[in-house]
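pls ignore typos typing on phone
adenosine monophosphate + seq
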Amino acid sequence: MNVLLLGSGGREHALAHHIAKSPLLGRLFAAPGNPGMAAVATCVALDAADAQAVIDFCRVMEIGFVVVGPEAPLVAGLVDALAEAGIKAFGPRRAAAQLEGSKGFTKDLCTAFAIPTAAAAQFTDADTAKDYIRSRGAPIVVKADGLASGKGVVVAQSVAEAEAAVDQMRGGLFGAAGQSLVIEDCLDGEEVSFFALCDGRTARAFASAQDHKRVGEGDTGPNTGGMGAYSPAPVMDEALTARVMAEIVEPALRGMAEMGMPFQGVLFAGLMLTRDGPKLIEFNVRFGDPETQAILPRLQGDLLALMLACAEGRLAWERFAFSAQHALTVVLAAEGYPGTPKKGSEIRGLDKAAALPGVIITQAGTKRDGTRLLADGGRVLNVTGLGSSLAEARARAYAGVDAIDWPGGFCRRDIGWRALKGE
Ligand code: AMP
Ligand code: GLY
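k done
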């Protein structure tokens, strides 16, 4: 079967690497892909926002399955357009993608199906929103309803900060995404990224990870798309996994099916482990980046077969397992990130780094220029270390980082610090 993978980040490079190993695969295409993915896929210039162009490409290249990496095409309804054209895909339809596309939609689902989450209210009017903020007090969290590239959340430490966030969002900082606001209580605890595969009716626990969102060491400074991650999350033992499935993932899947919007794809639950148990912070409807780079190296099983089973409603009978190993991913970003990253600096030494034991490199914002590899984005490289303990995984990841010659890049030196504190 020929497969088209949409996306160009480290997440998609990791997906490509695993899809390429499947005995079910004929040819693998990536759009737009990146220079790292070109080793296992044919990269093509195709805009995922142009559903007709994607469908035409699928017809010409006899694509049997489309894997959608990022959320925007899912929220825009690409999977619906593909289904109408008779093309199977991994990822939810537009109605089900509202789980990520609208925070208000997810809050309503939580209320209707008793899914534990922070108490919240929704507003389209700034004055009423501010009245609510004053009545609840700080700390309090202000969120834009729609997609805002992970930047539409302000955890305000004071009422004044929360009111300023309301004005900014209503003032158009995130365009239409911020015209409706969700204001919710601040949750306290440890955060975990939890992933479940879903075929509309059946959900199977897949993997857990923890990521580091802040740019600076000690989790300080501005938020980013993610500066590193490790998997599994040490706190997610079997009992907690069963509880998250029973209290959060399964009611959500049942609720979506009851409302006529069955969810198929990967459901990514951002969780806060509070004193009162796990609570949902948000759902995403796709794999995480950089979590995926730390999860997939541990997967024992055929990723393409699993994704197909999600699309075809056969997930209950699929077999997969994870190795007992730990993986830790360090993101290398270009100087200037998360502001304006400097483009064009040369990267050397990737082959040397990838040859080290237990080191896997995935590319994200890179570009080929003849034989040279150049930085071409914010998050540029991911270096994953695999080991029998988290400490060994981290040592291997940083050995990989140190073998790369890229003066224009930087990384955090403390990925995994919370989990490794006690070791
Ligand atoms: P989100 O985009 O909803 O994942 O939010 C981004 C980040 O904001 C999360 O990863 C949390 O660190 C933080 N956050 C969101 N909602 C809350 C909340 N209710 N309480 C505390 N922190 C939150
Ligand atoms: N690492 C968080 C995300 O992919 O949204």
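The chain has 14 helices and 25 strands. Residues 2-94 form a domain with the Rossmann fold fold (CATH 3.40.50.20). more later
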